[in-house]
Amino acid sequence: MKFSVIIPLYNKEKEIRRTVESVLAQSCPDFELVIIDDGSTDGSAAIAEALCAEDPRIRLIRKANGGVCSARNAGIKAASGEYVALLDADDTWDPDFLLEAERMIADFPECALWGLGFAELYEGRPFRELPTGLPKGFRGVVENYFGMEGRVSDLFCSSSVIIRRTIFDRVGTFDERLRYSEDIDMWWRIIADFPVAYYDRAMAFYHYDAGNRAMNRRIPLEASLPCYPEKFAPYKGNEPFYTFSQRWCGIKLRQILFGPDKTQRGIAKEAAKKLDFSILPIKYRLLFKTPHFIGKFIYNATCKH
């Protein structure tokens, strides 16, 4: 089997059939579909079970609720394909998604991850486009990801990537402490050590109006990547990535520490102690190591706008 398509499923009874049908409609038939039900409490699992009965390429694995990373990791463990394609249970693919992925793998065989463009939809229509920092229609190996000018998009999302399965043995699986930015963490760990390719053509579709979206839930800071800047210490030898990771975490933490929501300020303050201030501008020491009113004055004067 070339592709193992992994769908983590939790309470998506209104969307899961649409998502699965977009996989079954693929013009490239060389895949298995592994659905990991992460303890759904609605009718999601029953729908997935019915879909399994309709097509032998679909497998359903049930587990206790452990979060999206736990579900993806269970899918990776169960996968038999040479390449893992991730797809969230409320997103969809263009019918030629896997066909183009196959072409990307053939054209850029040295890579560990291949990403296709994704479109953000609301009520079926694109509603925004984030700058990639790359030429329009770019197709090739991405250079200088951590120093790229003009990049707002992360290029890759959890429904638009294909990953060589053996790479997980090298970089590890998804960090199960995380429920937010867990996908970014994975892409970074791969990009830090391996070449990756990207095609600026929207072939995965993120449906903003889907129900039970993680982005619409309040995620505790301790379940998000900025709370763990120390996890990137093993990459100190990769100066561009290590500096990028510390600055990114610092920016996210200062937004919380000096933002309107006071409930997580203490957690942000503690997490900031784990930043590597030796490679950050002096401003970060002033923000995080001075009394709050001084830090907030500096934040308002230099960071807020």
Can you describe this structure in just a few lines?
With 305 residues, the chain is an alpha/beta fold. The chain has helices at residues 16-24, 44-54, 68-78, 97-107, 168-171, 182-193, 239-257, 265-272, 282-289, 292-302; strands spanning 3-9, 31-38, 58-63, 83-86, 92-93, 113-122, 125-128, 139-141, 161-164, 196-207.
Describe the structure.
With 305 residues, this protein is an alpha/beta fold. The protein has two domains: 3-216, Spore Coat Polysaccharide Biosynthesis Protein SpsA, Chain A (Alpha-Beta Complex); 222-302, no CATH class. It has ten helices and ten strands. Strands 1, 2, 3, 4, 5, 6, 7, 8, 9 and 10 form a ten-stranded mixed sheet that branches. Helix 2 (44-54) links the parallel strand 2 (31-38) and strand 3 (58-63). Helix 7 (239-257) packs antiparallel against helix 8 (265-272) and helix 9 packs across helix 10. The longest helix has 19 residues, at 239-257. It is globular, with a radius of gyration of 20 Å. The mean pLDDT is 93.
Secondary-structure topology with pairs:
Blueprint: E1 3-9, H1 16-24, E2 31-38, H2 44-54, E3 58-63, H3 68-78, E4 83-86, E5 92-93, H4 97-107, E6 113-122, E7 125-128, E8 139-141, E9 161-164, H5 168-171, H6 182-193, E10 196-207, H7 239-257, H8 265-272, H9 282-289, H10 292-302
Parallel strand pairs: 1-2, 1-4, 2-3, 6-10
Antiparallel strand pairs: 4-9, 5-10, 6-7, 6-9, 8-10
